[in-house]
Specification:
5-stranded parallel beta sheet, globular, alpha/beta, 221 residues, Rossmann fold
Length: 221
């Protein structure tokens, strides 16, 4: 299935990831219709939300200076953790990958529910924690995780919805994305994370389009 994303200039390509996600959503919706799990009104709601993603992504990009300023203060952190729950955990994995690929920062992702089972042992004042918080039913649990890492000296960036005040008094910085259906937020929530990786690379004097040791295609096992 072609994504029609155009040429991939950089290895750490944002459009490759987001267009692949969009294609997967369309396939999933089609399967849902065929299996009778998605009704016509549900399908219309999802299609309308997907059609809104392009202008919503433009709005995020129009505020990229916020991420740039934050990166200019945090690019020298020795380690970065990304955490989230449900869909946010999946985006945490992609975000940690991008940061290590192009800025060479030690970064990893974990499900926020696993924080006390290992990752918290590494948290100190040299740590950046990016908490992706777009699953509204889990805000209470995410806030508890954020307080735990803050108590150990970490700097916390929260990515959540616009007009959402929940984390205002908890995080060091909040970056807001347009509100959409919880299940399709990954296409939007990944953008500020990838921007952060890009600006960290630039701040470190690295070329984000030509990361070391990476290949566009794997031709050997």
């Amino acid at each position: 299935m072609y994504t029609w994303a155009g040429p991939e200039i950089a290895v750490a390509s944002t459009k490759a990831f987001t267009t692949q996600l969009m294609c997967i959503y369309l396939i999933a919706l089609q399967f849902g219709v065929l299996r009778g799990n998605i009704t016509e009104p549900m399908l219309e709601e999802y299609i309308e939300a997907l059609e809104e993603l392009a202008p919503q992504a433009d709005r995020i990009l129009s505020e990229k200076e916020t991420i740039q300023r934050f990166a200019s203060c945090q690019f020298n952190k020795t380690k970065a953790f990304f955490m989230g729950r449900l869909f946010d955990y999946a985006i945490s994995l992609e975000s940690a990958l991008k940061l290590k690929e192009i800025s060479y920062t030690h970064s990893e992702a974990f499900a926020a529910g696993e924080l006390k089972h290992g990752p918290i042992a590494l948290v100190d004042d040299s740590t950046l924690v990016v908490a992706i918080c777009t699953q509204t039913a889990l805000f209470d649990k995410m806030e508890s995780n954020i307080k735990e890492v803050k108590a150990r000296g970490a700097t916390v960036l929260v990515i959540t919805f616009e007009d959402e005040p929940y984390f205002n008094n908890t995080a060091d910085e909040v970056f807001r994305i347009p509100r959409t259906l919880d299940s399709i937020t990954p296409i939007l929530s990944v953008i500020p994370c990838q921007l952060y990786a890009y600006y960290c690379a630039v701040q470190r004097g690295l070329d984000p389009d030509k990361p070391r040791n990476l290949a566009k295609s794997v031709t050997v096992e």
